[in-house]
Amino acid sequence: AQKITQTQPGMFVQEKEAVTLDCTYDTSDQSYGLFWYKQPSSGEMIFLIYQGSYDEQNATEGRYSLNFQKARKSANLVISASQLGDSAMYFCAMREGVPGGGNKLTFGTGTQLKVEL
Amino acid sequence: GAVVSQHPSRVICKSGTSVKIECRSLDFQATTMFWYRQFPKKSLMLMATSNEGSKATYEQGVEKDKFLINHASLTLSTLTVTSAHPEDSSFYICSAIPDPTHSNQPQHFGDGTRLSIL
User: Fold this and answer.
1) Which chain A positions have a beta carbon within 8 Å of B111's beta carbon?
2) What is the pLDDT of residue A98?
């Protein structure tokens, strides 16, 4: 079974609008972390935002926020006021297990976001 | 802070050549680094976890003798693709965590190496 599922292979959004990128996950661990990364066409992976499984509040980082619904095992990324520079591939990733005990990330298949004028 | 440098950014070489890729943590020490492979328009697949001073831990299906990993210092891990063939052509990217004891620490990635085997 897929541990991280991103069901939107591609998304379009108009400049200045908000967009939500979906991510659902599957784990039996109580302690885990969820990450979102942005990968422009140049290839580098840029860390955007983190949500811990025990965090009670949704994470926010500038124009990025995470809609964390633990019972539904979803961690959707919301980008507000989209900009042309937001056009990129976005990956959701999960780290399972205790701190220091591996720290491996499992990535979803990604969502290609295109911001249009 | 937390800068990871990867070199080279692009390699084009003939089939049968061995290629070494370096991953350096520039402003922190990394006892653990990670090596990923990414096919075009696909996700990142973890190949191995590189451990300073000990053997790397490879993921299932990754050939240890094909992809040699050495982590000789706290700031450098290398991936050597031995006797590379066209099917080894891919985007390889490394990452490291400044403080793996804190669960909220993200992996910081190098800029990746685009390997093309002719």
Assistant:
1) 42-44
2) 56
